[in-house]
């Protein structure tokens, strides 16, 4: 039962960040919204690993989080003009 509440709050967070992505006008705000969505998605993978009792999903979430971080840093460097 508590898992349903947690999943509902996570999906609500994804919805709010998607609304921010759609309604924002600056590219920086869109990048932050995408970063929030990938972070929440990584958390969702961790929750799924807990529900299914499978540790392999934790590795997937870790790699997904690292790739997300590298992607956001690359986009930030590009927008700053550093690349």
UniProtKB/TrEMBL annotation:
Alphabetized GO MF terms: sodium:proton antiporter activity
* Record-linked Pfam families: MrpF_PhaF (PF04066)
Q: Tell me the compartments it is located in.
A: Cell membrane
Please list every transmembrane segment annotated in the UniProt record, as residue ranges.
6-22, 31-51, 57-79
Establish whether keyword Glycosyltransferase is in the entry.
Answer: no
User: Which keywords does UniProt give here?
Assistant: Cell membrane, Membrane, Transmembrane, Transmembrane helix, Transport
Q: Identify one Gene Ontology CC term for this UniProt entry.
A: plasma membrane
Tell me how this protein sits in the membrane.
Answer: Multi-pass membrane protein
Answer yes or no on keyword Transport: yes
> Which domain of life does the protein's organism represent?
Bacteria
Q: Which family does it belong to?
A: Belongs to the CPA3 antiporters (TC 2.A.63) subunit F family.
- State what protein this is by name: Multisubunit Na+/H+ antiporter, MnhF subunit
Species the sequence originates in? Thermoanaerobacter thermohydrosulfuricus WC1
């Amino acid at each position: 039962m508590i898992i349903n509440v947690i999943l509902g709050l996570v999906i609500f967070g994804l919805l709010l960040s998607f609304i921010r992505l759609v309604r924002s006008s600056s590219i920086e705000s869109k990048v932050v919204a995408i970063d929030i969505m990938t972070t929440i998605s990584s958390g969702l993978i961790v929750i799924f690993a807990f529900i299914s009792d499978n540790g392999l999903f934790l590795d997937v979430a870790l790699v997904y989080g690292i790739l997300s971080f590298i992607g956001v840093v690359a986009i930030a460097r590009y927008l700053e003009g550093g690349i």
